[in-house]
Write a structure and sequence with these properties.
The complex is a heterodimer. By secondary structure, chain A is of the alpha+beta class. Helix content of chain A is 18%, strand content 43%. Chain A has helices at 7-18, 71-80, 131-141, 197-206, 259-269, 320-329; strands at 2-6, 32-38, 41-47, 51-58, 60-63, 66-70, 85-90, 95-100, 103-108, 125-130, 156-162, 165-171, 175-182, 191-196, 212-217, 221-226, 229-234, 253-258, 280-285, 288-295, 299-306, 314-318, 334-339, 346-350, 354-358, 361-363. In chain A, the strands form four sheets. In chain A, strands 6-2-3-4-17-16-15-10 form an eight-stranded antiparallel beta sheet. In chain A, strands 14-11-12-13-25-24-23-18 form an eight-stranded antiparallel beta sheet. A five-stranded antiparallel beta sheet of chain A has the order 5-1-7-8-9. Chain B is an alpha+beta fold. Among the domains of chain B are: 37-224, Heat Shock Protein 90, CATH 3.30.565; 240-352, Ribosomal Protein S5, domain 2 (2-Layer Sandwich); 458-570, Ribosomal Protein S8, Chain: A, domain 1 (2-Layer Sandwich). An eight-stranded mixed beta sheet of chain B has the order 5-4-3-6-2-1-7-8, covered by helices on one side. A five-stranded mixed beta sheet of chain B has the order 9-10-13-11-12, with helices on both faces. Classes of the chains: A alpha+beta, B alpha+beta. Strand 26 (361-363) of chain A pairs antiparallel with strand 20 of chain B, so a sheet runs across the interface.
Chain lengths: 364, 620
């Protein structure tokens, strides 16, 4: 294999695929990126056996072929190369010679035959959605998924294509984030799938600002095609819990709050909490919201922000991390906080169909 | 005849029998001759060769010797010889010393109450000489010639002048030659030798000021110089690194002084053979002390594991009764509670490692804060570090913009200043995270050596203490769950859980019985909220069930049981922790009271000192 490629093009392509490469994988081949010429392009593929990312870049191909190179090291080399043409030549022993201007590297690779083949894909449904729209949906929701491995079904987000809309839901059992978007798809393409958080993070990182995204679903896998990228991921099998039942039908009070004001206040006040077990108390009084944290070893923080509120006084405690997460990932200026009492869940809503249910912290 | 069954009447009968000086012909009960009495007494005092050595070494030390040499042949079954350079005896004393209840150590009954010497009962020599071929050679420093006495099976064979150095030498040959029953009960030579060595170690520890040698079958096993400290003795008897696993004890309260050393929890073993207790310098023990040790290590050692301990307990002699057991193995305290409290307090003080005063006064600024360990030649490292640092900065920035909750891809940058300073109460003054080994263990460097840390165990310890701390502060917070989770348990577990619902409720669990063996969980203590309810609660239920959850267990003990198992189940091993995460854990762990083990007693830290490394690498 022999090819010449623009440094920036190669770097961009590598950037898209290198992040899922395992650092301490048990299979050495999984630390490598597969390079393969395909006509006038070279394709780059990485996988951790759960997610597979493939992209391609235009290159001058002098000799067809393929190899695998240590991804992290190859990426680091490319990052440091001067701008210009990079010449890559691979010998039969999979040793790559990389030349660029005055630089010269010999990088030892592994044979492409050992690289796991791309999974066969038989889609049962195909959806098309705007890249940016999908990315924003994921950003607003995916952080709420669980990392507890014993609840594997919650280690991802639910993508539900139903009733002419896509609903994305993530929960860890203490808070739940949900966003909806109208999407066109055929009646018989209704489906629900749970996509691992790792895949979604990869998507958030690589999805672009414009252009369409094609989502293909098979029995156990999902594929995302966009730009020159293909991401194939395993699906989490199982039944996602019925999320509808945790969304309160109605709350007694609804308060509009400036999103950034609230986020900044929570962030400041939570400086005086102990990360893992933190709680912040929100007290809604007449036209004001008071935020207080208090821990005997650290100290006390207090901040009052003006809100329009005429209802009954409500004092409720939340995990500040859980409270800040949606505020940070939303983009609207104003959010609506819906509450009933200190024992019932709080709900954060915005103008767009977004909803975040958060269970309070109680004192025993 | 019934009268003599009454104990008080026995004396009268004896007096009568003696005065009459006639053997009571037609009576079934007879006074035993002295040599029989001695044999019986020997059974109590002399069980095996080791007990002979014990008595003889005690005598030597009581005689003010500064050098004691012990020699055994064939595990002491052929010969036990103990020589000392103590005060020695003149001929009269020497002859008297082998009579029963002849002693130089006490005179009156009152003195029994306040014995300060090791021996005092006056039984030892007569007992030993009754069951062996016994030679005593002794000379007081002031006299020109010494005395040699030979006794065989309790019968005086020979008394003669002898030339000898000042001091006393006992030779005990063919132990139990005239008591075949006893001899049959002796174990193999190796076992008897091991017993003697173990006992020798006890006296070596009790008297570091006395020089001791031990020779077995002509081979010198120990040569311990006199005038040493306890620390020297421990080093000499154990491996050189052992001392670094011990913490010095120093505590006095209510007239009870506790000194010596207590082992870090990792010294725990499955029996008590590394626990040495000395009461007023006498190797002895009392159940109360073992209970106290158990209690002191309760939260750091697993049940059935016993830490090393070298406890020296000093109380006024009148406060302790040593005359409980002929071999003086066990003593009784007048105020056991005071002793118990003192031992617990001493051990806890040593383990929690309050930094000494002067360390606390160290200024916050340190000039020689350690730099990251260079991985390659220095110049190269510098070069790369600058560029990588920039990359990391960008990466961090990007992460913050995009999705701060997504775990940042672990950057390999080594450019962080990753030294964590812990001026107070930490197991180290400073420590630096070097990395992670095997994708699991964190490798740290401290001022004294290398520490391997199990992040999972460390995390358990941190969580456990935070949890317990919040419980005692009385403000357990509970995080509600979106949907109550139904969990079903095995009947026995379910029963255990059901019985303790009130305690669990106090601790922040929202659990309600839901018929049969099913429970509904609608809230978890905030500390455990990242775990899964079913895993945590089935763990707790099993722990409660297993501990028998004694109905009499205190609320505190129950809480600990619950917290221990809850912390274990709510924490999972995570590979590839970021350096920042390890640093935070190290900092948190340093703040805990018992940083050395997880709540179940597994070690969190394994320390290897530079001294030990140097030794292993052959650098002195």
């Amino acid at each position: 294999m022999k090819l010449t490629i623009e440094k920036d093009v190669l770097l961009e392509a590598l950037q898209k695929v290198q992040s899922i490469v395992g650092q301490r994988s048990t299979l050495p081949i999984l630390s490598n990126v597969l390079l393969k010429t395909e006509g006038e392009t070279v394709s780059l593929t990485t996988t951790d056996m759960e997610v597979c990312v493939k992209t391609s870049a235009a290159a001058e191909i002098a000799e067809q072929g393929g190899t695998t190179l240590p991804a992290r090291r190859f990426f680091n080399i490319c990052r440091e190369l001067p701008a210009g043409q990079v010449e890559i030549e691979v010998d039969v022993k999979d040793v790559a010679t990389i030349r660029c201007g005055p630089s010269f590297f010999k990088l030892v690779g592994l044979t492409e035959e050992d690289f796991p083949p791309l999974p066969e894909f038989e889609e049962s449904a195909v959806y098309t959605i705007d890249q940016n729209v999908f990315k924003e949906m994921l950003q607003k929701v995916s952080y709420a998924s669980s990392t507890d491995e014993t609840r594997y079904i919650l280690n991802g987000s639910l993508l539900s294509f139903k009733d002419e809309k896509l609903t994305v839901v993530a929960t860890d059992g203490r808070r739940l984030a949900l966003v909806e978007q109208e999407v066109e798809f055929s009646e018989d393409a209704q489906a629900s799938l749970v996509v691992p958080t790792k895949t979604l993070n990869e998507l958030i990182k690589t999805l672009g600002e414009e252009g369409l995204l094609r989502i293909r679903v098979s029995a156990a896998q999902v594929a995302f095609d966009f730009d020159r990228i293909l991401i194939i991921s395993k699906l989490i099998e199982g039944t996602y819990p019925n999320f509808q039942q945790v969304i309160p039908a109605q709350c007694e009070e609804r308060i509009a709050i400036d999103r950034e004001t609230l986020l900044n206040a929570v962030r400041r006040v939570s400086l005086l909490t102990d990360d893992q077990t933190a709680s912040i108390r929100l007290t809604f009084g007449k036209n004001k919201l008071e935020l207080v944290t208090n821990s005997p070893e650290i100290g006390e923080a207090r901040e009052t922000i003006p809100v329009k509120y005429e209802g009954k006084e409500i004092s409720i405690a939340f995990n500040p991390g859980f409270l800040m997460a949606p505020l940070r990932h939303l983009d609207s200026d104003e959010i609506f906080f819906e509450l009933s009492d200190e024992l019932s869940p709080g709900v954060i809503k915005t103008g767009v169909p977004f909803l975040y249910v958060l269970m309070p912290i109680r004192v025993s | 005849m019934a009268a003599i069954r009454v104990h008080s009447r026995l004396k009268i009968f004896r007096t009568w029998a003696k005065a009459a000086n006639v053997p009571p012909m037609n009576q079934h009960i007879q006074m035993l001759p002295d040599h029989v009495i001695n044999k019986i007494a020997a059974g109590e005092v002399i069980e095996r060769p080791a007990s002979v050595m014990k008595e003889l070494v005690e005598n030597a030390i009581d005689a003010g010797a500064t050098q004691v040499d012990v020699e055994v042949v064939q595990g002491g079954m052929q010969l036990i010889a103990v020589s000392d350079n103590g005060s020695g005896m003149n001929r009269d004393d020497a002859l008297l010393s082998i009579e029963r209840h002849a002693t130089s150590k006490i005179r009156t009954a009152e003195e029994v109450e306040a014995v300060a010497t090791l021996g005092f009962r006056g039984e030892a020599l007569s007992s030993i000489s009754a069951v062996s071929r016994f030679t005593l050679i002794t000379r007081p420093a002031a006299e020109l010639s010494g005395t040699q006495i030979q006794i065989s099976g309790g019968k005086l064979q020979d008394v003669a002048d002898a030339g000898c150095p000042p001091g006393t030498r006992f030779e005990v040959r063919n132990l139990f030659f005239n008591v075949p029953a006893r001899r049959k009960f002796l174990r193999t030579e190796a076992t008897e030798l091991a017993q003697i060595r173990q006992l020798f170690a006890v006296y070596a520890l009790a008297h570091p000021e006395t020089g001791l040698t031990f020779t077995s079958d002509g081979r010198e096993v120990y040569n311990l110089p006199g005038g040493s400290s306890l620390a020297d003795r421990i080093t000499a008897l154990y491996s050189p690194g052992f001392l670094s696993h011990l913490r010095r004890l120093d505590f006095t309260a209510d007239g009870v002084k506790v000194s010596g050393f207590a082992g870090l929890p990792q010294t725990g073993r499955s029996d008590r053979s590394d626990q040495y207790v000395f009461i007023n310098g006498r190797p002895a023990s009392a159940p109360v002390i073992h209970h106290a040790l158990n209690e002191a290590y309760h939260a750091v050692l697993a049940r059935g594991r016993y830490p090393s301990a070298f406890l020296f307990i000093e109380t006024p002699p009148a406060q302790v009764d040593v005359n409980v057991h002929p071999a003086k193995k066990e003593v009784r305290f007048r105020h056991p509670a005071a002793v118990r409290d003192a031992v617990i307090a001493a051990v806890q003080k040593a383990l929690t490692l309050e930094a000494p005063e002067e360390e606390r006064r160290t200024p916050a600024f340190k000039f020689d804060a350690p730099r990251p360990a260079p991985r390659v030649e220095k110049q190269h490292e510098l070069n790369i570090a600058v560029q990588r640092g920039k990359g990391a900065e960008e990466q961090r920035h990007k992460d913050q913009e995009m999705a701060p909750e997504i775990p940042a891809p672990q950057s390999e940058t080594g450019n962080r200043q990753s030294a964590v300073s812990n001026p107070q109460s930490a197991p180290w003054k400073w420590c630096r995270v070097l990395g992670q080994a095997g994708g699991l263990y964190a490798v740290l460097e401290t001022e004294e050596g290398i520490v391997l840390m199990d992040p999972q165990a460390a995390h358990e310890r941190v969580l456990f203490e935070k949890f317990m701390h919040d419980l005692t502060a009385g403000k357990p917070l509970r995080q509600g769950l979106l949907t109550p989770e139904a969990i079903e348990l095995m009947p026995a577990d379910a029963e255990a859980l059901r019985r303790h619902l009130p305690v669990l409720d106090e601790m922040g669990f929202g659990i309600s019985a839901f018929g049969q063996d099913t429970f509904l969980v609608d809230a978890l203590p905030v500390h455990l909220q990242n775990g899964s309810p079913i895993v945590i609660l089935s763990g707790i239920a099993r722990a409660l069930e297993k501990s028998g959850a004694a109905a009499r267990a205190t609320r505190e003990a129950l809480r600990e049981t619950v917290a221990q198992s809850a912390c274990r189940t709510s924490i999972k091993a995570k590979d590839n922790l970021s350096t920042a995460a390890i640093e935070r854990l190290v900092e948190d762990l340093a703040k805990t009271e018992m940083p050395y083990t997880c709540p179940h007693g597994r070690p969190t830290l394994i320390f290897t000192s530079f001294t030990e490394l140097n030794r292993k690498f052959g650098k002195s």
